[in-house]
Amino acid sequence: MRYRPLGRSGLRVSQLFLGAMGFYESGGADGMRGHRAVLDAYADAGGNVVDTASAYGESESVLGELLTGRRDRFVVSTKYTISRDQADPNAGGNHRKNLILSLERSLRRLRTDYIDLYWVHVWDRHTPVEETVRALDDAVRAGKVLYVGFSDTPAWVVSRADALAQWRDRTPVSAVQVPYSLLKRDAERELLPMAEASGMTVAAWAPLAGGVLSGKFTGPGAVTSDSRVAPASLTPRDHAVAGAVREVAAELGATPAQVALAWLLARSPAVHPIVGARDAGQVTENMGAVDVALPEEAARRLESAAAFEAGFPGDFIAECEADPWVFGTASVDPGARP
Q1: Which end of the chain is less congested by CB atoms within 10 angstroms, N or C?
Q2: Domains of the chain
Q3: Has 56 been annotated as catalytic?
Q4: pTM for this predicted structure
């Protein structure tokens, strides 16, 4: 396992994050033993970031119990935005009132005095981003939050929030959280370039596309029913990509899940896949992705199976850069930028 700084901070975070949505229900004594085994397997493999949210059922409370006696060993991240009471118009959103009340509840559930990484869970277009930035900074200054991030938010909003933070000497945005996988590459249009240019960490959720890229629904022994994904709804593109992943995995002596995660890790040093797991064995398998060296030819094969277009303005600008009519005939070394 290797570690990278979180955004522009000095906090070291592991290549793979553990998603704790699977701790949605405690499941009694047997369930807690299973949850503990998952967390232990993740920690034994060198992982140190556990990601949860106020809206993930009992996850925060379960995690709080599992971290007793070793809380400071982990980078704990949780989120706010989702409504705490659907009958109360102020129980959801990114405004100051919901942030304060959600944060206090998360601290109690997690049995901790501080959150390492506090996320805005989803963009709230009704709350000025200036209010959110200031409220997050106040939580940091109070010592209850160390770093902040934005999940499921447009690139222009995140960029504006980070610029406001820098201009006004407030806590910068350290990370963004987005869905990202071989099957869902939308983040490459705006969010990933913005994060790379701004020095932000990218936490990639659903890196296995709900299990499709693990081979769970395709190939030998495929599952025919699942609570998250309807196998019958998979498209020819889904099957083609999953098949390419299986082929590369067989060539490399790895599992399909490891190959799909290794592809993400190779895309950018900013990207950190969030892996979930039903048991300790699955955690151990997923964590093995950090040891998979993906040849460039194999990466190209995987990408060619998943047709993707950046669209405007990305594709248009790329065409302009290749056209001497626009910038002349002299070539520019892309590595020469300071």
Answers
A1: C
A2: 3-211+255-294 (3.20.20.100)
A3: yes
A4: 0.93
